[in-house]
Amino acid sequence: MMPLEGIRVLDMSGLAPGPYCTMLLADLGADVIVIEATPGAGRRMEMPQGARTLAYDPLRRNKRSIGLNLKDPQAQETLLRLAEKADVVIEGYRPGVVKRLGVDYETVSTRNPRIVYCSLSGYGQTGPYSNLVGHDINYISLGGALGAIGWPGTPPAIPLNLIADFAGGGLYAAFAISAAVIAREKTGRGQYIDMAMSDGVTSLLAMSTGQYFGAGVVPEPGTSFLNGGIPAYHVYECSDGKWLSIGSLEPWFWTETCKALGCDDFIPHQNNREKFPEMFEWLRTKFKEKTRDEWFEELRQHDICVGPVLAMNEVFENPHVLAREMVVEVPHEEFGTVKHVGIAPKFSDTPGAIRSMGHGRGADTDEVLREAGLGEAEIAALREAGAAG
Question: Which of 72, 87, 104, 165 is flagged as catalytic?
Fold first, then answer.
């Protein structure tokens, strides 16, 4: 048994944040059915779907796919029939689109009052920016994260699209959907979730917002103790050109760091900004004496917050990552063994699992429609009309 076994999800989300959300749900047992536009029916980018791409795509694993042209009234009615037996619907269109298509929350909930319906968008369904187009870089800009990342006097450092797309969007949506499913057990009713990625970004800044509202402190690039503004919490280049992270925020960790590096004189000056230039210069020179891995092996023997800055190829060779089962090998009929990123939460009684690789667009259309109660003649008629594929 898995935590979300028995929960059926209809996924109309399209781009990465929504599929990541439903990957998380599917990994924990949810039956996720991806609703994809039939060829030529949608505006979204057509991503390659070769057999190898599907096998290695974690965002499509543990899911089934059905092709529907939601511009067609027959396809719209078909989706509503599917929703009658579903628990969750998630969509990632611009505000107003699902209303025009006749598959919005109000319409779906009349057919299934227990439905949990999540609209995942950049700026939400309300507010002056709700119809503004965007991507991760725009959401972290408005949400407040990008303005705090980088180094003084340089442009903001653009991170991978993890903060808005995957954390503020996909992860937050999965959390919200799970909470709404739990709430339904108490109220007997489903509900609507308006999940904006920009809202998720701002929420992720909760600790910084407390400092701002309480003391008026604005986090600026490379100036605070949590974004590289102090020697005790920084990254240092080593002799091999690789980098080591030091996170010795607490005084006892900083003391251990200084003792291990032979700079005991710096112990009382951890937060003395007048000494920072001297400390930075000394530490940068010191770390150039050995390679990253030599420093890590040496310093981790002490009570020091230290970590190697790993490239992705190094991550999935790291003994700790492997021990935590964050690399999973899954049998595949064509490619033998396929590697996937593992499932992060480790449940003692109801662990998640990778049960199937990605299915191509529309690979499960007939099967899913039969489950919804459609007969063979109805399915054939939908295909003939171009409403399904």
Answer: 165
Residue 325, by phi and psi: left (phi above 0), alpha (psi -120 to 50) or beta? left
Distance spanning both ends of the chain, measured CA to CA:
32
Query: Which residue is catalytic, options 135, 269, 332, 366?
Result: 135
CATH ID of 233-315, from 3.30.1540.10, 1.25.40.10, 3.40.50.2300, 3.65.10.10: 3.30.1540.10
269 is known as an active-site residue: no
Q: Identity (one letter) of the amino acid at 82?
A: L
What pLDDT digit, counting tens, does each position of 253-298 carry? 999 999 999 999 999 999 999 999 999 999 999 999 999 999 999 9
Segment 129-185, tens digit of pLDDT: 999 999 999 999 999 999 999 988 899 999 999 999 999 999 999 999 999 999 999
- Decide if 135 is catalytic: yes
| Residue 267 Cα distances to 7, 199, 253, 299, 335, angstroms | 55, 40, 10, 17, 55
